Amino acid sequence: MSSTGSTYGDIHRYEPARESTAAAIAIVLLTVIEVVFVFMFTYGLVNGWGLSDTGNMFLGGILAVIFIDLAFILALYRKEFLPDVVIVKKRRRKWEDLYIREEDVDGETLGTDAWEQVKRAVYPYYKR
């Protein structure tokens, strides 16, 4: 669905989410796996697996799997259950972001002493 509105905040394009059942089942299964790995990491941390070299690497691997699994859960959720919305925003020109006027884009000499030149080199765009 598209609209032709051009005022700020108008929805330009809205595509609803697919909300597939297979994605919901995959998210539930990945969440169960996530809980198992979090339990394993907590159990290993409490029992002192991290005190040996191999146990420390094992805990690091489990922690990596936890975050990778979480990334897959979030990616599936974003792709399958969040709508795709494009909102009209204001297009700004380069000099508007720098707080200077259009006629001052090329710059001007503002000071001759060394301290004024250092101030301009550190923070070149003052609000006017």
Q: Any overview of this molecule?
A:
53% of the residues lie in helices and 7% in strands. By secondary structure, it is mainly alpha-helical. The protein has a two-stranded antiparallel ribbon. The protein has helices at residues 21-46, 53-81, 94-97, 114-122, and strands at 11-15, 84-87.
Largest sheet: 2 strands, antiparallel
Number of helices: 4
Number of distinct beta strands: 2
Percent in strands: 5-15%
Q: Return Rg in Å.
A: 27 Å
Poorly predicted tracts of residues: none
Compute the average pLDDT.
Answer: 79
Shape assignment: flat
Order of helices and strands: EHHEHH
Name the helicity range.
Answer: 40-55%
Question: Care to give the gist of this entry?
Answer:
By secondary structure, the chain is mainly α. The protein is built from four helices and two strands; from the N terminus they run E-H-H-E-H-H.
List keywords for this structure.
two-stranded antiparallel sheet, 128 residues, mainly alpha
Draw up the topology in text.
Layout: E1 11-15, H1 21-46, H2 53-81, E2 84-87, H3 94-97, H4 114-122
Antiparallel strand pairs: 1-2
Helix pairs in contact: 1-2
